[in-house]
Design brief:
Layout: H1 6-9, H2 15-28, E1 34-35, H3 47-58, H4 72-86, E2 95-98, H5 100-112, E3 118-123, H6 127-135, E4 139-144, H7 155-161, E5 166-172, H8 184-196, E6 200-204, H9 225-230, E7 231-236, E8 249-252, H10 255-268, H11 274-285, H12 289-310, E9 325-329, H13 331-336, H14 342-353, E10 355-356, E11 358-359, E12 368-372, H15 377-396
Parallel strand pairs: 1-10, 3-4, 3-5, 5-6, 6-7
Antiparallel strand pairs: 2-8, 7-8, 9-12, 11-12
The structure holds pyridoxal-5'-phosphate.
The site of pyridoxal-5'-phosphate (PLP) has 13 residues, from helix 5.
Length: 397
C-alpha cells in the first residue's frame, strides 16, 4: 500500500468527476449526451491572442525561465487593466502572474493561513475554495446564503460567524455557481466590516466581465483606500477571453503578501508557461470587442434558457446576474420522480434523459444542481425538452 499524506487524503474528489466519468462512459457507448457541466466558455480563444503566442515562440522569446512573478509587460498590463476598468492604482510589485486564478488562490491561502486559522466561505461556493483552505491547514467556516436572499449574505450574518481566528473571507462576485452579484452598497458594508476586524478580503473577480440584465460587477477594492489595503484581488484570462487551457491568472494587492506568493512560486512552479504569458498580454492589451460579443451571446442565451428552466416541474430557479451558470433547486423534481437525493436524480438524468448537470453537493448545497449554459440555444432547448420528458415519464411510473 502506498502511503498517502493525511493532508492530501482529506481533499474531496472533484464533484464533477463522477458526472464526467458517467458522461464519458455513455458517450463511448454511442449515446448522445448534452453536457451542461462545463465551467468554461464554448468560444475559441481569439486569433490575435493565439497569434501572439505563436509569434513569441517564433521569435525565441520563450525558451528560458521568465521571472517567477511573470514577465514585466504582463504585470504592467494587469496594473493598467485595473487602472482602466476600476480606477485602482497598483505598483508592479503588487502583482503576480500565476497558473490560472486557481493557482493564485492556492498560493494565497498557503501564504495567509496557519494551522487552525479560519476562512469564511459563502455557500454556495466554488468547489476548490474549501479544499485549498484545508490544504493550507485552515478551517472553513461555511456561511449559507439562501436563494430567498439572492444567494447573498449580510454583515450581520458574517459577524455571527466571526471569531478571533478569522483570517479571511472569500467573496466571489459574480458568483459560481449562482451568478449573484453583490451591489456597491453591499460590498461597502462588507468591506468596512473586514477593515474594522482586520480580515483579509479575497476578492475572486474571475467573472467580472460577464454581467447581464444591466448589472455591473464592482471591484470591492475600488470602494475605499482602507478596503483596497485589506483586499487581495484574484482574476485571470480564462473566462473573459475564453482561455481556460492557457492557464494564466493573477493576484493583486498587499506587496508583502504578493512577495511571499512570489517566493512560493520560485520553489514550486518557477513561472507560468511563457507562450501563455505572451498570449495573456495580447488579450489584456488588445481589442476588447470579443469580450462584449461573448457577453452579449451569453445574455441572449440566458434570456432564452431561463424561462424554459422555470417551466420544468419541480425546478426552482433564480435569474442569475452574471457568470454562465444557473443554480437550480431540484429537490422537488427528485422527490416526485422517486429519487432519494439530488445526486441520484442527476445521475439518472444523465443515463435516461441524456442531459448532464453537476449535482450541488460540491458547492455546499445538495438540493441543487449547477447548469451551465455554454451551449447554443437549440441545444439548450433540446436539453430542457429531454429533462421535461424524463420527469413526466418518471412521475407516471
Ligand atoms: C469562481 C472561480 N474562481 C476561479 C476559477 C479558476 O479559474 P482559472 O484557474 O481557470 O483561472 C474558476 C474556474 O472555474 C472559478 O469558477
Amino acid at each position: 500500500m502506498v502511503k498517502i499524506s493525511k493532508r492530501i487524503a482529506q481533499v474531496a474528489e472533484s464533484p464533477t468527476l463522477a458526472t464526467s466519468a458517467k458522461v464519458k462512459e455513455l458517450k463511448a457507448q454511442g449515446h448522445d449526451i448534452i453536457s451542461l457541466t462545463v465551467g468554461e466558455p464554448d468560444f475559441e480563444t481569439p486569433k490575435q491572442i493565439r497569434d501572439a503566442a505563436i509569434e513569441a515562440i517564433s521569435q525565441n522569446k520563450v525558451n528560458h525561465y521568465t521571472p517567477a512573478a511573470g514577465i514585466l509587460p504582463l504585470r504592467q498590463a494587469i496594473v493598467d487593466y485595473y487602472q482602466k476598468y476600476e480606477g485602482l492604482d497598483y505598483q508592479i510589485n503588487q502583482v503576480i502572474v500565476t497558473e490560472g486564478a486557481k493557482n493564485a488562490l492556492y498560493s494565497l491561502f498557503q501564504v495567509l493561513l496557519d494551522e487552525g486559522d479560519e476562512v469564511m466561505i459563502l455557500a454556495p461556493y466554488w468547489v476548490s475554495y474549501t479544499e485549498q483552505v484545508k490544504l493550507a491547514g485552515g478551517v472553513n467556516v461555511i456561511i449559507e446564503a439562501e436563494m430567498e436572499n439572492q444567494f447573498k449574505v449580510t454583515v450581520d450574518e458574517l459577524e455571527k460567524h466571526r471569531t478571533d481566528k478569522t483570517v479571511a473571507i472569500v467573496l466571489n462576485s459574480p458568483n459560481n455557481p449562482t451568478g449573484s452579484i453583490y451591489s456597491k452598497e453591499e460590498l461597502t458594508a462588507i468591506g468596512n466590516w473586514a477593515v474594522e476586524h482586520d480580515i483579509v478580503i479575497v476578492a475572486d473577480e474571475i467573472y467580472a466581465k460577464l454581467c447581464y440584465n444591466g448589472n455591473e460587477a464592482v471591484s470591492i477594492a475600488s470602494l475605499s483606500e482602507e478596503i483596497k489595503k485589506q483586499t487581495i484581488i484574484i482574476n485571470g484570462v480564462s473566462k473573459t477571453y475564453a482561455m481556460t487551457g492557457w492557464r494564466i491568472g493573477y493576484a493583486l494587492g498587499n506587496k508583502e503578501v504578493i512577495g511571499k506568493m512570489i517566493d512560493l512560486a520560485n520553489h514550486s512552479t518557477s513561472n507560468p508557461a511563457g507562450p501563455s504569458q505572451y498570449a495573456a498580454l495580447a488579450a489584456l492589451e488588445g481589442e476588447q470587442d470579443f469580450v462584449e460579443k461573448m457577453r452579449q451571446t451569453y445574455e441572449k442565451r440566458l434570456s432564452h434558457f431561463f424561462p424554459l428552466l422555470e417551466s420544468i416541474p419541480g425546478f426552482r430557479v433564480l435569474k442569475p446576474q452574471g457568470a454562465f451558470y444557473v443554480f437550480a433547486h431540484v429537490k422537488e423534481a427528485a422527490e416526485q420522480t422517486g429519487y432519494q437525493s439530488v445526486s441520484d436524480f442527476s445521475l439518472a438524468m444523465i443515463e435516461e434523459a441524456k442531459v448532464a448537470v453537476v449535482s450541488g453537493d460540491g458547492f455546499g448545497f445538495p438540493d441543487y444542481v449547477r447548469i451551465s449554459y455554454t451551449q447554443d440555444e437549440e441545444t439548450l432547448t433540446e436539453a430542457v425538452n429531454r429533462i421535461k420528458a424524463f420527469i413526466e415519464k418518471k412521475t407516471k411510473e
